Fold:
Amino acid sequence: MTALLGIQQSSPIIVKIVEPKSESLYDVLFGALGLTGALTLASVVAAIVLGAVLFWIRSRPNNQ
Structure:
């Protein structure tokens, strides 16, 4: 373990710190509404498909 502590690097490590992009309130609201809209649209389409399938099943004549 002491051998690892004695090793030094030959060149320094340079780290560049970049400022993060600041998000405005508009960006956050637009992203949240976009996700909510996509989920709402998916649920409406699923409800229409399920309703159509149930209507088709109930409208078939029963052959017993």
About this structure: Helices lie at 2-5, 25-59. The chain has a mean pLDDT of 84.
